[in-house]
Each structure stands twice: as C-alpha cells, then as structure tokens.
Specification:
Number of helices of chain A: 19
Shape of chain A: globular
CATH superfamily of the largest domain in chain B: MetI-like
Shape of chain B: flat
Number of strands of chain A: 9
Strand order of the largest sheet of chain B: 1-2
Strand order of the largest sheet of chain A: 2-1-3-9-4
Radius of gyration of chain B: 28 Å
Oligomer: heterodimer
Largest sheet of chain B: 2 strands, antiparallel
Order of helices and strands of chain A: HEHEHEHHEEHHHEHHHEHEEHHHHHHH
Distance between the termini of chain A: 69 Å
Order of helices and strands of chain B: HEEHHHHHHHHHHHH
Structural class of chain A: alpha/beta
Mean pLDDT of chain B: 87
Number of helices of chain B: 13
Distance between the termini of chain B: 44 Å
Mean pLDDT of chain A: 89
Number of domains of chain B: 2
Largest sheet of chain A: 5 strands, mixed
Strand content of chain B: under 5%
CATH topology of the largest domain in chain B: MetI-like fold
Largest interface: A-B, 51 and 39 residues
C-alpha cells in the first residue's frame, strides 16, 4: 500500500480552506449587498391597477366595526374589492407591523394604527403616503388631525374614531352595596378622582366585588389628563415628573383594595366581566362593545350595565385609531379613496350605533342620529348624548412623542408588577431603568 | 499509475487506435473522471446552498448587525459602534434574568423529559396489547400545535379561575399564583414543554430499542437476568448513541424555548411576565428586536446566546462521550 500525505489530484488543505472562506465571504457579501440594494423605503412603490381577483388589503385590530361596511363597499365597487384581516390585540399587530416595516415588504394597502403609535409614524413621515386632500379638509376634530399631521403639513392618517371617556358601571352591584343606581346620581358622586376612590372604599366594604377592572385601566384614564406624561414638548424623555409619579402612587396605593389585580385584556380580566368581578370601568366609547362581548349578550340574569355622564377629574380621551397608507402599497389611490369613504361621517355614525366606537369628525358629532341614540344593553342610556358631552369636556390633550407607545407599555408593566405584589418603589425604579434602555 | 487513463500507456503507440476513436475515448475518460470527482458534490450541494441561504447568511448577518447602531424610526442600520451592543446586553439585568430563567426552565424540562421518555419507550418496547395504538398516542401531543397546547394549559394554569387552582382550593389548599411566582411559572412552562416533547423523544428511544438484537435478551434471560436487570444492563448500554443524540438535541431545543413563555404570558405586552419572571433569552431577543426596535442589541444577544448554546452542546457531547467510554 502506498502512503502519501497529499493524495494526487487534491489541493493542499490550507488552499482549500482559503477557498471555502472566500466562497462564504462572497456569498455573505453578495447577499448583504443584495439587501442593501433594496428599494429605498421612503420611495413610493410603482402604482399598478387592481387586477381581476386582486383586492385591496386592510389590517385592523380589536373591533373596528368594518365587517358590514366592507361587504357593502364590495357590492358597490366590483372593481375595488377590499379584504380585511383582523388581529385581536393591538400589541400583537404593533409587533407584526414593526416587523413588516423592518422588511419594507408585505404591508397591507391600508394599515390601522392605534392613536398612541401615531407619533412614531409622524416622526418618520416619508415612509407613508400623504393623505391630505380638499375632500377631507376640516373633516376631523382638530386634536385628531393634528396628531396625524407631520411638521411639514402632511396628513398621514385618517382618524377612525375618538375615545371620549365616561364611567360604565354595574347598576345591580351598586344596588346590592346600597349605593344609588340612577345614572345622574352616580355621576354626581364621582366628579373628582378623590370622590371616585372614596366611593370605591365605600363600595368594597359592602360588596364581594372589586371597584374597578384593572389598575392599568384607571392608570391609563388618569394619564390621559396629564399634559406631558412621558415626554417634553421637544421629545426629550422625562418620566420622573411629579404628575406622572402622582398617577403611579394613586393607582398603586389602591391596587390591593380596589382593583381586581388582573392585567387588562388578560383571561382573568375577561373572566371578571362574567363573574361579577368589579363594579366600574373607565369607559371610552369603544369599550362598550368589549363590555358587551365579555359579559355576554344578552346579559346574564340580573346583570345591569349603565353609563354615567361623568369622568373623574374632567374629560379625557382614550385612544381612537387611524388608517394610514404605506408607500409600499401599489394601489395608493384606491387605498386612499376607500379609507376616506370608510372614515366619512355617515359610516362613522353607523359604526357608533352598532359597535359604540365614537366618531372623530365634526359633522358626526352634531348629527341628530348620533345625539338621539340610546343603548338597550346599557339600561337604555342615552349614549349619543352622554359621549358627546364627554367629548366636549375634553380640555387636555396629553403630548405624545415618538416613544409614547413604548413607554406606556413599560408603565403598564410597572403597575402590573405592583398588582402582583412587588414593592411600588422597586417597580418604579425598574420602570425608570427600562425607559432609559429605550433610548 | 493505473488510474491515469487519459494518458496512453507508453510503448504501445504503433498499435494505437485511429485518431478519431482516441479523441472520443479521451473525452469519455475525462467525463467519467469529472463525474467521479464532481457528482458527489453536486448531490450534496442542495443542503449547502439552502444552509448557506437560511442558516449561514442570517448567522453572519446577525454578527454584522450586532456591531452597528439601529435607527429606530426608519428601521435602518445605523453607524458602526463596535462592541457597544454587547456591553449593553451583558450588563442588562433583564438579560441576566432571562438567562437564569432559560436554564431553570431547561433543567425542569429536559432532565425529567429524557428520563420519562426512556421509561415510556421501554414500556412500548414490551409485549403490550394494542402496541400501535399506544405508540401513536404518545406522539399525539407533538402533533398539537404549541399555540393550541398553550390555550389548554392557559386555562389549566390561570391564576384566578384556572382548573388546577380550583382543584387546589377544593381540597383546602392555597391557590398557586402561576403567572406571578417565578419558579412556579417555570414549572408550568416546563410542564407544557414536557407534555409536547416527551412522546417524541420516547419514539426515538423506541426506534433505538427495537434495533437491539433480540438474542442479547435471550442470553440475558438464560443467565437469569430479570426484566429490570435486562433494561439496565442490555437496553441502556445499547442505546447510548441515541441517548447522546436526544440529550444534545433537547439541550439545543431547551435553550431556545420561545412560544410557550410568550403565550403563557397573558399581559398585553407578552414579555414573559411584567417582572420578566419567565422571560427566556430568545424572548429577550424578540422583545429587544421587534418590540423595542433595537436590532443591534437583539443581534448581540443572539450572538451571546449562540455561543452559550454551542458551548453547552460541546460540553454535553464531551461529558456523555466520556461516560459512554468509561462504561462501554
């Protein structure tokens, strides 16, 4: 047998090693270059006509109330069919949206955006289509359109709804605890947060139920009355301000006695609706359909929900979303047309009547159909009138910088930690650290 | 040399075939030589091409991103910042916490999993009635999508209205706060992982056990070894290579747990608990990259986790091999 160190016909190992490294490098560089070459995200995609069998895509989250309206649109516009994808939670959709924006690919033609995330979009305006037109000029409440307008005057989102807040309460539980049940009397009892909490103490002393649904939800309600909750007007982050700290202290101070301790939107929170878990809930217009779905429709025997025309500490706006069109859309014109139609006053009033999402438009607010509407599920409360009053009571619009939505998530986590038994001071410090890590 | 067929043997020139035939012959020889040399590479190339695209490239690109800043608003790579991202990740208490969680969940799942899987496989290997039925049913949990499994476990382990807590309260015990207490949450998550993977591993063990020559058992019986003795002295030594394989793969899998903790969390942020009680390292990478929009930091964390996994897999391999050698 012949013994050789380098067998014939083979190159020495070192050479081959170098070749392999070279090949890998070429592959990686080639692919990196390919990725770097990707079309500029701020550049508009080439516009194409909608082809046979193709439809305009829209992704919404939670309940936008669009099912019937889209079916109607599709019937009337055979050329522009619309297909809706519904994601149940905003937080899930936000993550997916971020991923799609990273990839600059796969975004729907119309994207639904939670109001709190709008500042992040306004801060990067050249990835989105300017939706301003004469047709929609002056259509929205000023604070809604301002929040979607970039410094150079581009309108980047059509407001779908607003979130004026009232207090929804369980009249039957109030009665059991010996509190007044009439919605006007109830409204008198909770004009300030101090009154609201004091009434809560009185209630829990006589009832098995808790006073409110979740610490996170009253925190959010109170936060909506703070002018600069997380960021200063020049977008510098400042979470160590007295007003924010006051909200945190009030909420965490009452968490063990008045709150269910469940995190908002969790399974336990949802179950609390059916199991007489709590008596009141901060109630923006869109919350009504959540209450109805979670409690069950028709309501279980004995359960009576009602709405009081009041919000502690004055008015407040919670949420309200937008529709935006990304520049990657290849059907921007159709997308804009559809978005304008579905956010028009007539459509918004129909959504309000059916789902409770409160209109975001000037014309809709004065509509007699809206003002006279009542909700049988809520003990026939005159919801149209109540939520219009609540919308008019809004005096403060909290300033939302580009990081608002991210900091809010951390703030909610800080409160949930205390709900779960963590020391409030430690939890606050963790919150401050986490906010620092966001910059 | 006899293999060099393309050169005519020396000294046979006068009786060589005509020029045309010779050229054809040379061509054929050359082709067959290329065939022998290149075809094997061609046959295995699909793996390497696919691996290069979906395995190697992301790996290298992650390393590349990890030394760059990330422009949050525009979702773009920013400037080169050296090891800054690594400094951030390694000093981040949340990352350290996530590592502890990962190892805790991994130990709570992988160790009992392998032991139970071997036991189940041994049972399935015996003369059971309706063997196929039992073998199929252990694989059933694996077929269920993790998301669906989490739904089931979510209602079992709910803090307030969960089935397990209802039972505990029924017999007068304190309910367990599954989503709050760190170690209990790990226990619940490990339970999901075990439920899903034990049957899968059991089938791999079963396959190995089936390959053990039956006459070994016969001889063992003749020597008077009972069932238990046979299991420890025949079965276990014979399936050692498979044991190494299962331990290494379940280590790698166990250190990458993601779906279970993410879906177990019922707060809207889903970051593995509001206090990161059960945030695993892969979840940390997800949160940093997708939620907080710091791809550079997420990449750095991914590289760190990658190195840890490689290190542990090697350690695992060395240890199991050493044990195997000593006993073999």
């Amino acid at each position: 047998m012949r013994i050789t160190t380098t067998r014939p016909g083979r190159r020495p190992t070192s050479h081959r090693g170098r070749l392999a490294v070279g090949a890998i490098a070429a592959l990686v560089l080639g692919l990196t270059a390919a990725c770097g070459d990707d079309s500029d995200p701020t550049e508009s995609a080439d516009q194409e006509a909608l082809e046979e069998g193709e439809s305009l895509t829209i992704t919404t989250f939670g309940e936008f109330g669009y099912d019937e309206l889209i079916a109607e649109w599709n019937e009337e516009n055979p050329d522009v069919q619309v297909e809706q994808t519904k994601v149940s939670l905003w937080d899930d959709w936000k993550n997916e949206l971020n991923t799609l924006l990273q990839a600059n690919e796969g975004l729907p033609d119309i994207v639904a955006i939670e109001g709190d995330f709008m500042p992040a979009i306004v801060a990067a305006p050249d990835r989105w289509v300017d939706l301003s037109s004469d047709e929609v000029e002056g259509r929205w409440l000023e604070f809604k359109s301002d929040a979607a307008t970039s410094p150079d005057g581009q309108l980047l989102g059509y407001a779908t709804d607003a979130g004026p807040e009232a207090i929804c309460y369980r009249a039957d539980l109030f009665e059991e605890a010996g509190l007044p049940t009439d919605r006007e009397e109830v409204a008198q009892l909770m004009t300030t947060w101090d009154d609201y909490y004091a009434l809560g103490e009185e209630f829990v002393a006589k009832s098995d139920a808790q006073w409110y649904d979740a610490s996170g939800s009253v925190a959010q309600a109170m936060l909506n009355q703070v002018e600069f909750p997380f960021e200063e007007a020049d977008n510098t982050v400042n979470v160590e301000n007295d007003e924010l700290r006051a909200v945190y202290d009030t909420v965490t101070g009452n968490s063990s006695s008045l709150s269910t301790g469940a995190a908002q939107w969790s399974d336990d929170w949802t179950a609390g609706f059916q199991k007489d878990g709590f008596a009141t809930i901060p109630c923006p217009g869109w919350m009504r359909s959540n209450i109805r779905d979670n409690t069950g429709d028709p309501a279980p025997k004995g359960v009576v929900w009602d709405v009081a025309d009041v919000f502690p500490g004055g008015g407040g706006n919670w949420g309200g979303s937008y529709l935006a069109v990304p520049k990657t859309s290849t059907h921007q014109e159709e997308a804009q047309e559809f978005a304008a139609w579905i956010t028009a006053p007539e459509q918004q009033i129909r959504i309000f009547e059916q789902y409770g999402n409160f209109p975001s438009q000037v014309a809709a607010l004065e509509d007699p159909a809206l003002l006279s509407s009542t909700d049988p599920y809520f003990n026939d409360a005159p919801v149209g009138e109540i939520f219009s009053n609540r919308a008019n009571a809004i005096t403060v619009q909290p300033y939302h910088g580009p990081l608002y939505s991210d900091i809010l998530a951390k703030f909610q986590e800080a409160i949930t930690r205390v709900d779960q038994g963590a020391d409030p001071e430690e939890s606050w410090e963790t919150f401050v650290d986490e906010v620092a890590a966001l910059q | 040399m006899s293999t060099r067929l393309d050169e005519p043997p020396a000294g046979v020139a006068p009786s060589a075939p005509p020029a045309g035939d010779r050229a054809r012959l040379v061509r054929r020889h050359r082709l067959s030589r290329w065939d022998v040399k290149l075809s094997p590479y061609l046959y295995i190339s699909p793996f390497f091409i696919v691996f290069g695209l979906v395995g190697l490239f992301p790996l290298v690109y992650t390393g590349y991103l990890s030394v760059h800043d990330w422009e949050r608003l525009y979702y773009q790579r920013g400037e080169f910042i050296g090891l800054e991202n690594y400094r951030f990740v390694l000093t981040d208490p949340v990352f350290q916490k996530s590592l502890v969680n990962t190892f805790s969940i991994f130990l709570m799942s992988s160790v009992p999993q392998v032991i139970v899987a071997v036991a189940v496989a041994a049972l399935l290997d015996s003369q059971l009635r309706g063997r196929t039925f039992w073998r199929m049913s252990v694989l059933l949990p694996f077929v269920v999508a993790p998301t669906a499994a989490v739904l089931i476990f979510g209602s079992l382990f709910a803090d307030k209205y969960g089935v397990i807590n209802a039972m505990l309260e029924g017999v007068g015990l304190e309910p367990i706060r599954w989503h709050v207490d760190r170690w209990w949450s790990h226990f619940a998550i490990a339970g999901m992982v075990n439920w899903r993977w034990t049957g899968y591993n059991a089938l791999i063990f079963l396959a190995a056990m089936q390959a053990v020559p039956r006459d070994l058992y016969e001889s063992a019986s003749l020597d008077g070894a009972g069932r238990v003795r046979q299991f420890f002295s025949v079965t276990l030594p014979m399936i050692r290579p498979t044991t190494i394989f299962v331990i290494v793969t379940s280590t790698i899998g166990g250190l990458q747990i993601f779906t279970e903790p993410r879906l177990f969390d019922d707060t809207p942020q889903r970051e593995g608990g509001p206090d990161h009680q059960y945030m695993t390292s892969t979840l940390y990478i997800y949160v940093k990259g997708i939620e907080d929009q710091f791809y550079g930091r997420a990449s750095a964390a991914a590289v760190v986790l990658f190195l840890i996994i490689v290190g542990i897999a090697l350690l695992n391999f060395v240890i199991t091999r050493r044990i195997t050698r000593r006993q073999a």
